[in-house]
Design a protein that fits this description.
The complex is a heterodimer. By secondary structure, chain A is mainly alpha-helical. Chain A has nine helices and three strands; from the N terminus they run H-H-H-H-H-H-H-E-E-H-H-E. A three-stranded antiparallel β-sheet of chain A has the order 2-1-3. Chain A is extended. In chain B, a hairpin with a 6-residue loop joins strand 23 and strand 24. In chain B, helix 2 packs across helix 4. The chains are: A mainly alpha, B mainly beta. Chains A and B meet through helix 1, helix 7, helix 8 and strand 3 of A and helix 1, strand 1 and helix 4 of B.
Chain lengths: 302, 452
């Protein structure tokens, strides 16, 4: 290597080092803050707890408040209902035997096929119930079997084996409810029926509830031939009580009558949704500025 | 010694290198993207709740009118138009909180929000010095608290029904974004008398069933009236002494002329979108072919020449293509062909037979009658044959015709036995089937374009 190479090496080494340093400095310092994007995903609450915690939780619930349950359709009032006290198991066994005779003849003269009211149960109990052999539920399957017009078979023998309540508990696919209040207690906001037919779902966050409210109130023009024209972006500024602080700003522009109708329907949905009380005041800084994109392309079949 | 001459490296001094490095670094730092100011929550709403729009329609205020009930009559026509379209839900006047007494001031929006009205229409009718009627209306967005639209019209007082239809169209367009169809007429065959000796007369009425007038006397059998899409002309077929003739009738002037003597014609011809030509099917020796005739010069041009039965042609709204029914493939199916002839392309492929195709004025659908296993259905499909949908089914539904905005289809249904056919409308989404009241039995409807 000749002398010219040595000087050149130093020069190029310096340049190379400087450029590397510049690139590294740029990559370290240049980060883009992405706007907070609320995706419309359907998520489920998942809690990971130990088995002992779970037993404690469920145990606590059974002894706790026996709140009113949403009553299923009851077309007649059930006459006799043994107490749902699962802790007193031994006592229940005796009751089972004695109550064999009385409920059996009773349903016979009554017209069959009445929706028998199942004993109201907390939803949380289904899993606990599946875990425990619950003898208190035995009169219930007896009643259901006695409902049929066929002479009620003495179901006493079948009781230990067949418990429809347990089957129902296993089949029930409801979300496990959280019983332990965590630091940020979830609000139980149910979204109203959406036009895509999915059943009412618990909203997992305030933004989902806001989206559900807007979807319920938004009445887009239907049957349009160019659905792409109907996408409307609206930006709203909210005051802490959940009302609009200023008229909504429509960010998309268009001149066609169809776009005007779509824009009006989006703005109307925003106005009608006030007050947005599903947004919590302590998070005001996060939701005071919302940009909503109303996109009817899934809805409109031209 | 061999002198190696190599290109000397760029003559950079240490200072130059440092300057270059600093420049590169500064450039890199300058290329940093600026951070956005604050986080905006972005939300996507992709589901909606398509419902008829609740709209409040208080009576129009009348001033100086010879008929004090005119305001109420106009309002009722508008309300029934909007309700019949299936896209609006007029709110019962008994529920209104505010009484509109002054047309020029803004309404009290909180009162209207309370009854869940999303739109409000206020109007005034006044009589001018020269006897004309001055009609005005405002369309308000209740929740946004703004005026969406407002118009005024001057018209001879007899035209008050048309004013109501025109105002209905303006409201419909502003709130749905589509052109209205209320200011239009229907021509149909009015049938009366016993079933074996029906008297058929050509009749014309407003699209809501009002203002029926008869255009022929009933001496001759009349069939299949058609409206021109651009002029106020009707063609229809008349059998006089067993001889079928096609007549061209101008509604405004009442002038009638014979388009031609076509011995083999079964359907009346259909107009081209510019109203200058008609396309028709002529029967010769057991097969039927399509012909185009220019109305001024009466020159006819043959479009198809096959041994099959090609009939019931209809123009596309751009006049470049026609759709027609042909049994060249065995059973009757729908074909699309260039307006000047050419190779037809079959677009219907389902079970059953397809007949009476009609192209929508919007160009996006072709409506047809389909027969399958003894049942008749009215359906629509896209002009390329995809997206076939049945809108209504029953015994003997036939003869679809589109409204001027392509959203509503009118057809007739003949329940058979001792009664007669009636006119029905259905939305292109298949909802909102309604019967149109006519003085007697009615068949073969044809919808006019919007009146000029």
């Amino acid at each position: 290597m000749n002398g010219a190479g040595r000087e050149g090496m130093r020069t190029s080494l310096t340049i190379s080092a400087l450029v590397h340093a510049a690139v590294l400095a740029w990559s370290v310092l240049a980060f883009v803050a992405k706007p907070y994007r609320a995706e419309s995903t359907e998520s489920m609450p998942v809690d990971i707890i130990s088995v002992s915690d779970f037993s404690k939780m469920t145990l606590g619930a059974r002894n706790g408040a026996r709140t009113e349950k949403p009553n299923p359709l009851a077309e007649k009032v059930a006459e006799r209902r043994p107490t749902d006290d699962p802790t007193a198991k031994v006592v229940e066994t005796k009751e089972t035997k004695s109550s064999t005779d009385t409920p059996a003849p009773e349903p016979k003269p009554k017209p069959p096929a009445n929706a028998e009211k199942k004993p109201p149960e907390p939803k949380r109990d289904l899993i606990a119930e599946a875990l425990k052999k619950d003898d208190a539920k035995k009169p219930e399957p007896k009643k259901t079997e006695a409902k049929t017009p066929t002479p009620p078979k003495k179901p006493v023998q079948q009781q230990p084996q067949f418990d429809p309540r347990k089957v129902e508990a296993l089949l029930d696919k409801r979300d496990p409810q959280r019983l332990a209040a965590t630091g940020d207690a979830l609000r139980d906001t149910v979204s109203l029926g959406a036009s895509n037919g999915t059943a009412a779902q618990l909203s997992q966050s305030e933004l989902d509830a806001l989206r559900a409210r807007l979807a319920q109130l938004w009445n887009p023009p239907a049957g349009a031939s160019n659905p792409e024209e109907l996408v409307v972006q609206v930006r709203i500024k909210l005051s802490p009580d959940g009302r609009l602080a200023a008229p909504p700003m429509v960010l998309t522009s268009g001149t066609s009558p169809l776009f005007q109708a779509a824009r009006d329907s989006a703005v109307r949905a925003v106005f009608r949704g006030q007050p947005f009380d599903m947004l919590k005041p302590e998070h005001y800084e996060q939701w005071k500025d919302v940009e909503i994109t109303f996109d009817p392309r899934d809805l409109v079949r031209g | 010694m061999i002198k190696r001459s190599s290109t000397s490296p760029p003559n950079l001094s240490r200072r130059g290198v440092l300057a270059l490095g600093a420049a590169v670094g500064a450039g890199a730092l300058a290329g940093l993207s600026p951070r956005p100011a604050a986080a905006v929550v972005k939300l996507d709403v992709t589901q909606g709740n398509v419902q008829p729009l609740p709209i409040a329609l208080p009576d129009f205020i009348g001033s100086g009118l010879p008929d004090p009930g005119l305001g109420r009559s106009v309002t009722q026509i508008i309300a029934s138009n909007l309700q019949r379209s299936g896209l609006f839900a007029p709110i019962d006047q008994a529920a209104y909180i505010e009484r509109i007494s002054n047309f020029d001031t803004a309404p009290r929006f909180p009162d209207w929000r309370q009854i869940n009205a999303q739109a409000l229409v206020t109007g005034r009718l006044a009589r001018q010095q020269d006897g004309r009627l001055w009609a005005q209306f405002h369309l308000w967005d209740v929740f946004a608290g703004q005026r969406l639209d407002g118009q005024q019209y001057f018209t001879p007082p007899d035209n008050w029904r048309r004013i109501a239809h025109i105002i209905s169209d303006a409201i419909y367009e502003r709130l749905t974004g589509e052109k209205g169809y209320f200011d239009s007429r229907i021509v149909f065959i009015d049938e009366s008398g016993p079933k074996d000796r029906r008297v058929k007369r050509l009749a014309l009425m407003d699209q809501d069933g009002a203002n029926v007038r008869y255009l022929t006397r009933g001496d001759d059998l009349v069939l299949t009236p058609r409206f021109s899409p651009s002029t106020q002309d009707i063609t229809y077929m008349s059998y006089s002494q067993g001889l079928p003739r096609v007549f061209l009738l101008n509604i405004e002037t009442g002038q009638r002329e014979i388009v031609g003597n076509f011995p083999g014609m079964t359907f009346a011809p259909r107009f081209s979108p510019d109203g200058q030509r008609v396309v028709m099917s002529l029967q010769q020796a057991g097969n039927s072919n399509l012909f185009v005739m220019d109305l001024r010069s009466k020159a006819t041009t043959r479009l198809t020449d096959t041994a099959a039965i090609d009939t019931s042609p209809s123009y596309a709204p751009d006049g470049a293509r026609i759709c027609f029914e042909s049994d060249r493939g065995g059973r009757q199916q729908i074909y699309v062909m260039g307006a000047n002839g050419g190779a037809p392309q079959r677009i219907s492929f389902g079970d059953g037979t397809y007949s009476t195709p009609v192209w929508s004025p919007r160009g996006d659908y072709i409506a047809f009658t389909k027969q399958y296993q003894g049942r008749f259905a009215i359906g629509i499909m896209k002009p390329d044959g995809s997206g076939e949908r049945i809108l209504t089914e029953g015994f003997h539904n036939e003869g679809p015709t589109f409204s001027p905005n392509g959203r509503v289809i009118m057809f007739f249904r003949d329940p058979g036995s001792n009664s007669g056919p009636q006119l029905y409308t259905v939305d292109v989404t298949g909802r909102n089937e309604q019967r149109i009241p006519t003085p007697s039995y009615a068949s073969d409807p044809a919808w006019s374009p919007l009146l000029p």
